[in-house]
Amino acid sequence: MAAKLIKDVPYRETITTFSGLRADPKDGDFVLEESKLEGFFNAAGIKSPGLSCAPAIGQYMAELVAKKAQFSTNPSFNPNRRPSIKMAQLSDEEKNSLIQKDPRYGRIICRCEMITEGEIVDVIHRNAGGRSVNGIKRRARPGAGRCQGGFCSPRVLEILARELDLDMRDICLESKDSKVLLGLTKSADQEVM
After folding, report:
1. Angle at CA 166, nearest 5°, toward 163 and 171?
2. Which of 182, 110, 102 has the alpha carbon at shortest distance from 148?
3. What is the 3-state secondary structure (H, E, C) of 124-162?
4. 85 with 54: CB under 8 angstroms?
5. How much is the pLDDT for 54?
6. At what angle do helices 153-164 and 117-124 cross, to 10 degrees?
7. What is the pLDDT of residue 184?
8. How high is the pLDDT of residue 7?
9. Residues 97, 91, 100, CA angle at the centre, nearest 5°?
10. Quick one: pLDDT at residue 188?
11. Rounded-to-integer distance, Cα 103 and Cα 121, Å
12. Strands (DSSP E) along the chain, which ranges?
């Protein structure tokens, strides 16, 4: 199908592909409402023009939740967070300065997205920092490129284990039941046959 739309599709550059489905309500309209389950809100069935409607949908859903919830103001809340470090967006001078302060910013972990070890360490140690392989992927993008983590995921796993002071077998892909490693295949004291 792609070849019908685009001349010379570079198929050899494709490493992974995905497919899926999207819920389509019977009446064809968005579902924006509180669920029958109290305190749970649905924003579903959002197809075109969902992207352009996203700001209005967000505001509408926030208003629905605010009517239901009992919120109070926290006077010490700081809504500003420190900027994320994106090495690819820095000038050469800014990159060199950062690498001088912390050499981890000079070590590329994800070659597809050009993400450094320093960027990964930064997102681990932020408030609500990444604690899983996918948590790091969502915050800094290693594994979001052509290889879909085929090359960088083991390094991300090592960095997570080191920075969180955990055994690599305790690191999850996503939730607590999605362990990436279940055990060792060999240990240094085993004889290789």
Report:
1. 95
2. 110
3. HCCCCCCCCHHHHHHHHCCCCCCCCCCCCHHHHHHHHHH
4. no
5. 92
6. 50
7. 72
8. 86
9. 15
10. 62
11. 12
12. 31-34, 41-44, 108-110, 115-116
Predicted confidence at residue 191, as pLDDT, reads 55
User: Per the structure block, which two tokens stand in for 21?
Assistant: 């489905």
Which pTM value belongs to this model? 0.65
The residue type of 107 is: R
Low-confidence ranges of the chain (pLDDT < 70): 18, 187-193
| Residue 6 Cα to chain centre, angstroms | 30
Tell me if 166 sits within 8 A of 160, measured CB to CB: yes
Residue identified by tokens 């607590």 is: 176
Token representation of residue 4: 């019908």
**What's the number of CA atoms in the CB half-sphere (13 Å) around residue 88?**
11
- pLDDT value, residue 193: 47
